[in-house]
Amino acid sequence: MADLKKFVCIVCPLGCDIEVESIEETLLFKGNKCKKGEEFAKEELEAPKRVLTTTVKVKGGVIKALPVKSDKPILKNQIFEVLKILALLEVEVPIKIYDIILKNVLNKDVNIIATRSIKKEE
Amino acid sequence: MNKKNENYDVVVIGGGSAGLSAAIEAKRNNASVLLIEREDELGGILKQCIHPGFGILQFKENLTGPEYAEKLIMEIEKLQISYLLNTLVVDISKEKKIVAISPDKGILNIKAKAIVLSMGAREKDRGSILIPGSRPSGIYTAGVAQRFININGYLPGRDVVILGSGDIGLIMARRFTLEGANVKAVYEIQDKPSGLKRNIAQCLNDFNIPLYMSKTVVEIIGKERLEGVIISDVNSNLEPVKGTEEFVKCDTLLLSIGLIPENELSKKALILVSDKTNGPFTSEIFETSVDGIFAAGNVLQIFDLVDYVSETGMISGKFASLYAKSELQNRESKKAINIMEGENIKTVFPQKFSFTSDLVLFIRPSIEVNHPVFIDVADGFFRVKRQYARIGEIMRVKVPLEVLKDLNRDFKVSLFDLKE
């Protein structure tokens, strides 16, 4: 029994259309122009992950929102749980770019880090 | 009122990715530089583009907009480049006299030996496409909504409809969803989406947001706040088809319908602006039709990769500083020739070759080919292969000065399908 799934690879701007066919125990990949695409498709099937980028509230100051990102991709089905935790946070200045805002999110080896610096007087 | 007079070798107008890159390169070439920015921080649009995709070509890293901006800003500080914030340039003349205004400094009169224009672009709004109906609140261009969320920390609405499938609209579909809003649909007037395929995947498919083609908004409904929009099918001439109207309830309408290079200042200096790119005609050193005034970034044409924006900034900055110090070679020796669109090319720029430097071409193809193509410069003088051609993506080709130095006629740039 063959099972066919299609994905658009999001690893690089090429955006290859990848087809994955699972025949019995093996997976057959078609359409990817590099190995990264195969790895991406495999992960999409088993446990799709995404890098999360959002903003976190800043206490006081002129700049109200701190842009942040997850330093590794997070499981797609856990993204809203992480967002709910981040929505309750308020960070204080000064902040240096790449400061860890939230460590080991949901007990996975993923941190939420700042993607800009904010000086104290801002 | 305080009137100040200042003189610089190179004045850069606009502190986004193009302007920052130009200022850095001009300073590295030992020019005295002043960078003028109208906002209260350097960085331009990068500050609000909190998603990744920046610097992949230039730094071999996948950075978010703010990270990319900070990298450039750190270099500005390291090189001790002078810059003015909260300062708006209101006039420039062919003689390179600049008038700027700022709340704390008043009116500034600045004289430059060379100018780099890097004012970026603005979004097309409701007025550009004349959507009929009432004028309630809740209608925003996608970039403005992005600023409200990412810079000001506001959520502009909770029930969102997006018009236009360009990348800004797709990115905002995801952004609103992550902030807890309900994005009902994206409507696109053409029969094909205009954003990157991977943005459709990670911004719409990931969240089951439907994308409808060949539809548009034909009426706005709402008194003080938007209550809904009327959606209609369009025919092959993009005209609404009577009888296909449907009401879609929403409190927010995002318009992602295109960007226009911001050339009001360019026109004041009597710089010639192209109808095709909506930006100045330039040579390969990105000098405009006015000697010593250069242009870089989105003010030239709308780019899709910041790496290319920075490249035009670096080239402009370098040659602006050489011009300022009277070190530009080949000024009068050979007459400039024109670069024109050949087969399968929608637009190509720069539009002139002045035999001063290598030629970096930015090409918009008019065909979509998902297998290798080749780009031909001057009927075989130079050819290069590329993996694909997509209508929404700019292609960059660098042609060495060596190759073109013996050309003495206007030439075309064409694109050919390798399979044919």
Descriptive overview:
The complex is a heterodimer of chains A (122) and B (420). By secondary structure, chain A is α+β, with helices and mostly antiparallel strands. Helix content of chain A is 17%, strand content 35%. Chain A contains two helices and ten strands; from the N terminus they run E-E-E-H-E-E-E-E-H-E-E-E. In chain A, the strands form three sheets. In chain A, strands 8-5-6-10-9 form a five-stranded mixed β-sheet. The radius of gyration of chain A is 19 Å and the shape is elongated. Chain B has 420 residues and is of the alpha/beta class. In chain B, strands 1, 2, 5, 6, 7, 8 and 19 form a seven-stranded mixed β-sheet that branches. A five-stranded parallel β-sheet of chain B has the order 10-17-11-12-13. A five-stranded mixed β-sheet of chain B has the order 22-20-27-24-25, with no helix packed on it. Chain B contains nine helices and 27 strands. Chain B is globular, with a radius of gyration of 22 Å. Classes of the chains: A alpha+beta (122), B alpha/beta (420). The A-B interface holds A 7-10, 12-15, 17, 33, 50-55, 57, 62-65, 67, 69, 76, 79, 83, 97, 115-117 and B 40, 47, 50-52, 56, 64-67, 69-70, 149-153, 178-180, 196-198, 200-202, 205-206, 387-388, 393.
